[in-house]
Amino acid sequence: MPTNETWMSKVEALAPQEQETLLGTSLSRRFSRLPLWLSHPANIGGFYGFLVALALILPYAYGDSSEVWGVQWIFHASLLIIASGACGFVSVLLIAFSQRHPVAPPRQILYPMPFLGLALLTIDRVELLVIPPLLVWALLLLPGPIYVHLSWAPRWRLLCMIEDGKDPFIGLEVKADEVIEAEEMVDGDTEMLEVVDAFESE
Question: How many domains does the chain have?
């Protein structure tokens, strides 16, 4: 491999699906601009827990007639942040062991989950219906750690490898050379096909 080959040329040599997986979506691209110590998967997980905790303020404030809702919110917010951050640490350890590359998370499933969990929590807090707490907290908590484990933790490992001067692209699929048939090149031109056949027969 040439020593002057840039990382961008290596990315361009990957299969399109692998390029998308490595570069990620707009969210992962934003995280990749942060310093590596700040974009640690545990920090990203904790940040997700913090965002969910902020969204819980209104359901807790207006769904509880007692004056201690703030204490309850702080307790649950702390649990969310700690649990999400701990899941990020676990993902780092698992990815370091498996050394797998990032995969695209199921966005159609993950993205609506926190909003659905927030809606169910609101319904439960205002006592319209009784919603199982396990269902509510699973919908609120799981999307962040799943995204971190599937997508960001492996990508963060690759970024760390780049910073250490290692090649993170070993094992990724390289695009196969495309073979273009003569019929596709001439687009059905029979006269041109005859010329091509004549050259091939010589």
Answer: 1
* Residue that wins the pLDDT comparison between 168 and 177: 168
Q: Which residue has the higher pLDDT, 98 or 192?
A: 98
**107-146 confidence digits (pLDDT tens):** 889 889 999 999 998 888 877 888 898 999 999 999 999 9
Which domain covers residue 100, as residue numbers?
7-177
Nearest to 113 by CA among 97, 135, 91, 129: 135
CA distance 154 to 99: 8
CB 14 within 8 A of CB 174: yes
Average pLDDT, the chain: 78
How far apart are the C-alpha atoms of 79 and 183, rounded to whole Å? 64
What's the first-to-final CA gap in the chain, in angstroms? 37
- Which residue matches tokens 């490898």? 161
Question: Does residue 40 fall inside a structural domain?
Answer: yes
Q: Decide if 89 is inside a domain.
A: yes
Partners of 41 in the beta sheet? none
In this structure, is residue 1 part of a structural domain? no
In a domain, residue 202? The reply is no
**Which residues on adjacent β-strands are paired with residue 14?**
174
